[in-house]
Amino acid sequence: MSSAAERYAAVHDAALTAGRFADHRRRADHWADLAELFRLDPHRPWDQNLRALAGYLEPADVLLDVGGGAGRVSLPLASQVREVVLVEPSESMRGQFIQSRDEAGITNARVSPDWWMDSVETGDVAITSDVVYFVRDIVPFVTKLHNSASRRVIICIWRPTPGDMDNELRRILYDERPSPWPGLPELAAVLWEMGLLPDVRVIPAAPWWIPEADGGLSEAQAVDLAMGRLERDDESTRRHIETDFDRLFERGPAGLSPRWLSGAREVMITWETNGRRLD
Ligand SMILES: C[S@@+](CC[C@H](N)C(=O)[O-])C[C@H]1O[C@@H](n2cnc3c(N)ncnc32)[C@H](O)[C@@H]1O
Predict the structure, then answer these.
(1) What topology does CATH give the domain 4-206+264-272?
(2) What's the gap in Å between 254 CA and the centre of ligand 1?
(3) Among 35, 129, 159, 213, who pairs with 92 as Cys (CB 3.0-4.6 Å)?
(4) Whose CA is nearest to atom 8 of ligand 1?
């Protein structure tokens, strides 16, 4: 019987072979096209995810944000801690982080350009948000998170993963079943196998990058959403969507909501390190 870590790697490899994400073992800037999308205003009102994260922080903390991107998660929290340290190998993401930080007037945040396994950075609380799907060798990555955080590790992922948000739409319309990204079931099994017993918190908010998931759509907006998510612009797809409309969309007093996105949730997996090192 294979280990949970081997199963995690197998799911990663199947998704990679299917071309569902870039191979992050290759040292390249894989996020050049998406970096701007990940830059959100650090002074925006806090959502439920930021409120939950802030509850774990103390004013004297160094907050380590591993694969922190443009600082979407950690810059809004800079006011809650002594320092934010972002570890981010993508030059494009780092550029967006620096612009965002400087325009927001945040002076206690810096960025280090390493891949996590090469980093020497440490902190009190280590966060990694939407990163672990791309990490094939998950055990050393999590072990290093644990050993680099004096108090707590927080891993945020989506269920379904961002790459799998539209699988149900594809199944209904085309009977497609894409190879999934490694997600919550695979990661939870690995953590269990490592002897970790994390808290798993489900944050009741829709995916931030798909505002239409909250509903309130007209029929035309609903069709456009499905076409956009499929990256299709042809009449045959439009007809498919119209034929399956009631399986895809729920009608409510405020308008239509996409059924296939209604259960998407951010999941926060967190544990205290208690100064105990993992081997
Ligand atoms: C989907 S983005 C998420 C960015 C940010 N955490 C957020 O939630 O907005 C994934 C990020 O993980 C970074 N990443 C992937 N593998 C990494 C690794 N091994 N070490 C450090 N960063 C990594 C990428 O460069 C990219 O910026």
Answers:
(1) Rossmann fold (3.40.50)
(2) 36
(3) 35
(4) 129
